[in-house]
Amino acid sequence: MKKKILIASYNLDFGGIETSLINLLKNMDLEKYDITLVLEEIKGAFLKDVPKNIKIKEYKVSTNKNIIIRKFINLLKRMKWLLFNYKRYNSSICYATYSGPCGFVARTSSNNKILFVHNNYFQLFKNNKEETKQFFDKIKIEKYNHTVFVSNESRKDLCKIYPKLKERFITINNLIDNKRIIKLSKKRINYEKNTKKIFLYVGRLNEHQKRLTLLLDVAKKCKEEKVKALFWVVGSGPDEKKYKEIVKNEKLDNVVFFGSKKNPYPYMKACDYLILTSRYEGFPVVYNEAIILEKPIITTINVSDDYISIPNRFGYVVSAENIYNKVKELSTAKEKIKETVDYNILNKKRMELIYKIMENK
């Protein structure tokens, strides 16, 4: 008989977490496991990519403005969920770390509860130990049998805060569909080839974490010093308007915004380097995508996962103060990554680890 697995997440719109979730679902052994995907909202561009044999349910909380009505409706929803789903699964996964409803669904559906942590929350809370602890206490991290981190750094930071739970903590990075990435990267895009090196940013346009003002400062210096560098930005987010206004006011004709793209890989294939100016990250999905498409990485964060670290192997880790100098240096160089990775083997190893914790071993 198949083992019943529940995976809870927010939705399947554009994003690194959503992409990695789809890759996880596609790698699941559906002959051995009966998978149910529970979403807060059944929507998103990746819905059609969910394997057909996977059931999709919705657990959507009320957002009624009347607090009494909202609490009453959500109480009924919780009672209904418990009535039909309480410990009905062999394992349950909260894939959206921050989501209270996903956590409730995962914690009540099985005895083997697994939490995925996709970001470095200690750095997100500006290295504030107390705020980080409050966040993870609120999502009841102690109730989970296993917590999966995508980077060694975020796992180590949480081990310092929760030393008694460290035996439950494990690093397993996201699964990557390398064949799909290579195939999609071959799609043609319209751009004019020139002698300028292309530095590509792919991600959410959010200043607090991604710090694209640093990238725009680099672009401004490159223009002033006539450095042959072109900066492509693929993504959208709350600070998009702010960034576009800077580009307009500073007349940065070396910065091009392409908006959010379900398929960013042709842009990655066309570029010379991937560039990230983040303050903090878990382990960015774009790192793996750049490695697959053999694009050197320039980044301001030094993170490693269960198998991969960036410096000297796949690119450069530089300080915010030195990123311009590195861009200037690379604008006249022909750099390549120094290693390749067999993601078929890597995915297999990661799935073995995931199956192990799903079996609660």
CATH superfamily of the largest domain: Glycogen Phosphorylase B
Overall geometric form: globular
The N- and C-terminal alpha carbons lie at a distance of 19 Å
Second rung of CATH, namely the architecture of the largest domain:
3-Layer(aba) Sandwich
Assembly state here?
single chain
Strand content: 15-25%
Overview of this structure, please?
With 361 residues, the protein is α/β, with parallel strands linked by helices. It has two domains: 3-175 and 344-358, Rossmann fold (3-Layer(aba) Sandwich), CATH 3.40.50.2000; 179-330, 3-Layer(aba) Sandwich (Rossmann fold), CATH 3.40.50. 38% of the residues lie in helices and 17% in strands. The protein has a seven-stranded parallel sheet, covered by helices on one side. It has a six-stranded parallel sheet with strand order 10-9-8-11-12-13, with helices on both faces. The longest helix is centred in the N-terminal third of the chain and has 19 residues, at 67-85. The mean pLDDT is 94.
